[in-house]
């Protein structure tokens, strides 16, 4: 499918790369200066839904830039233009509901780096798309770098073929701790009540089990969740048979509140994890946020993170099936 629509003009941004012949991200701007209002954008998206979704799959990331998207209400209108089903976030990151299908992105300290991940990769049902809106761009830093997941798999297979195949065959097991109460001073500071959407322990256990978790209540009131086995890599339909690095091995390996190992209990060599971390960073792509930017990510194909920044920074998010 050609990358063209009368409602959009192809643009570019600093940091954009070409990956396997496709621009990442694909930048779409108003076709005419007078067509930059949010109402015109929503209409254009509704009239080009199938085309736009194909662009997300083809390029993995699509950046809408130059449109007058002002707030959460405008952003929600963009999200709802497609008719995609909502999927509620489950995980340790502290977040706040803003408006209808719109939430804050991770509210952990801006001084810290949020490591690369596929959204909700630990959960059995994860979003197909992650949509981000920049309401307040930071004065410095704060980019949302992305990584083509298949490139990580390719390079890890080149350097550690036997290890990759062993982990893929056995699967991964993870543990993480949800606190007793929310703590926004921590990147993983979401309390178990917000994590599972209930204050009832029995209901939390039921919901955890439905999500593929086993839970253990801790003396201080928090909960330890055990997940697995989970895939190391996955192949999704419509993405050229690419083998995605669909895991959070590096992000959870050997951390204070989390761990990652092979599902049979076999430890994974630290040098393998360290080299994977280096490869992921080497393959990263990033641009500086501008006010009103809306970024669509194919969550099946891209890892994403957050660079440290100076305040203020306000990026909102919606996740879709």
Which keywords apply here?
about 325 residues, alpha+beta, 8-stranded mixed beta sheet, 4-stranded antiparallel beta sheet, 9 helices, 19 strands, globular
SSE topology sketch:
Elements: E1 8-11, E2 17-19, E3 22-24, E4 26-30, H1 38-47, H2 49-59, E5 61-64, H3 72-80, E6 97-99, E7 102-104, E8 114-117, E9 129-136, E10 146-148, H4 149-159, H5 161-170, E11 172-178, H6 192-196, H7 201-210, E12 213-217, E13 223-230, E14 234-235, E15 243-244, H8 249-252, E16 258-262, H9 270-282, E17 294-298, E18 302-306, E19 314-320
Parallel strand pairs: 4-5
Antiparallel strand pairs: 1-4, 2-3, 5-17, 6-7, 7-19, 8-18, 9-17, 9-19, 10-18, 11-13, 11-16, 12-13, 14-15
Helix pairs in contact: 4-5
Walk me through this protein's architecture.
The longest helix is centred in the last third of the chain and has 13 residues, at 270-282. Helices cover 26% and strands 27% of the residues. The radius of gyration is 20 Å and the shape is globular. Helix 4 crosses helix 5 (161-170). The model has no long low-confidence stretch (mean pLDDT 94). The chain has nine helices and 19 strands. An eight-stranded mixed β-sheet has the order 1-4-5-17-9-19-7-6, with helices on one face. The chain has a four-stranded antiparallel β-sheet with strand order 12-13-11-16. It has 321 residues and is α+β, with helices and mostly antiparallel strands.
